[in-house]
Amino acid sequence: MAKIKITKRSVEALKVTPKDYIAFDTDLPGFGVRVMPSGKRFFLLQYRRHGRTRRVMIGQYGVVTAELARREATIKLGGVRGANGDPAALRDAERQSTTMKELGERFLTQYVPTRCKPSTEAEYRRSVELFLDPFFAKQHVRSVTTADVAEMHGSLSHIPYQANRTLGVLSKMMNLAETWGIRDKHTNPCEDVERFPELKRERFLSPNELQRLGQALTAAEVHQTETKYAVAAFRILLLTGCRLSEIQRLEWRHVDLQQKELRLPDSKTGAKTVHLGDTVVALLETLPRVAGNPYVIVGKNKKTHLTDLQHPWRRIRETAGLTDVRIHDLRHTFASGGLLVGEGLAMIGKLLGHTQVQTTARYAHLASDPVKQAATKISDRLALALFSSVDTAGVKQPQNSGPLTEDADDTSEAA
């Protein structure tokens, strides 16, 4: 065990070895830093209590500075020297007593608000409050086993998508429980639980279906069965490939019609620029603006956006005879349309705001028309030669036309 004056510089200078070791401070007894083979460093306090050597973890270097760790170690050491002070015993008692409900509350109040978007926060809260809390109730965090998690996951087999999302949330909570010292390291009980298969639903509209949708939108606009803003929202969603929330909450200050851009300050993948076609620009130019309301898709209440687009969409798709089409399928249709006109996955991914090519690659199978067209061109070209003439024996012979004839001639000459 090495001895150093623990400072930022000395901690960073400690060498990484194949085996973890502890370097203790020269000034504060028991205050040390453990260097792991991975390169991570953890502050700790070691002391003796009733003849036993005990250690208490203070925190990881980087998250906790050397100065803060020294201050915390001094406080804990003062407690050890008191009448009933035993930080390790207090820690163990807390570990044993923390319930799953308490872990969920800490997860939702300390972790989620600062690291997740509002929509993600709502989904996490739903998983915790509707599924995890009722199942685990007052069970202690340290007592949760893989069998418990598998049982919880299996109880939601009738809603497999939700079951998998809830399992993911629980796994994150268990990882945090390890970080917070409530569970031992590398004991996440979710790791060996197999998720339910999920069928990716990639629906897109054919040209005929697009025509029917267009007619339904026009009818809703003419007969005023839906607001002009709801109709505009669906048209913009289809023509830009944007996500619902990006258009539903779009503000005019983020619209630049001269540059033909939407400059979104936030989205699922962060800030992004959406490039607009001329049709979308013309649509936005004719959409009425409401004084005092910053939103493009104006809601019924003052200064608000339209909060419910699901009910209008159900009515419109019913009129169009497209009852299985979701709003998000308009985004799929935009992606497939890009493939149809010959755009590559990289360009489509840029238009959709994807950060990874793999995300865009799943759209590649949506539009089979280009492949069918290629197959038709090839087969038609071959058939032209194969069936263009028939000799007296009734056997079809190729005529001299194009590359096929040249290939045949070359073969004959070579022979």
UniProtKB/TrEMBL annotation:
<dbReference type="InterPro" id="IPR002104">
    <property type="entry name" value="Integrase_catalytic"/>
</dbReference>
<comment type="similarity">
    <text>Belongs to the 'phage' integrase family.</text>
</comment>
<feature type="region of interest" description="Disordered">
    <location>
        <begin position="394"/>
        <end position="415"/>
    </location>
</feature>
<dbReference type="InterPro" id="IPR044068">
    <property type="entry name" value="CB"/>
</dbReference>
<dbReference type="Pfam" id="PF13356">
    <property type="entry name" value="Arm-DNA-bind_3"/>
</dbReference>
<dbReference type="InterPro" id="IPR010998">
    <property type="entry name" value="Integrase_recombinase_N"/>
</dbReference>
<keyword id="KW-0229">DNA integration</keyword>
<dbReference type="InterPro" id="IPR050808">
    <property type="entry name" value="Phage_Integrase"/>
</dbReference>
<keyword id="KW-0238">DNA-binding</keyword>
<protein>
    <submittedName>
        <fullName>Site-specific integrase</fullName>
    </submittedName>
</protein>
<dbReference type="InterPro" id="IPR013762">
    <property type="entry name" value="Integrase-like_cat_sf"/>
</dbReference>
<dbReference type="Pfam" id="PF00589">
    <property type="entry name" value="Phage_integrase"/>
</dbReference>
<feature type="compositionally biased region" description="Acidic residues">
    <location>
        <begin position="406"/>
        <end position="415"/>
    </location>
</feature>
<dbReference type="InterPro" id="IPR038488">
    <property type="entry name" value="Integrase_DNA-bd_sf"/>
</dbReference>
<keyword id="KW-0233">DNA recombination</keyword>
<feature type="domain" description="Core-binding (CB)">
    <location>
        <begin position="98"/>
        <end position="178"/>
    </location>
</feature>
<feature type="domain" description="Tyr recombinase">
    <location>
        <begin position="200"/>
        <end position="376"/>
    </location>
</feature>
<dbReference type="InterPro" id="IPR011010">
    <property type="entry name" value="DNA_brk_join_enz"/>
</dbReference>
<dbReference type="InterPro" id="IPR025166">
    <property type="entry name" value="Integrase_DNA_bind_dom"/>
</dbReference>
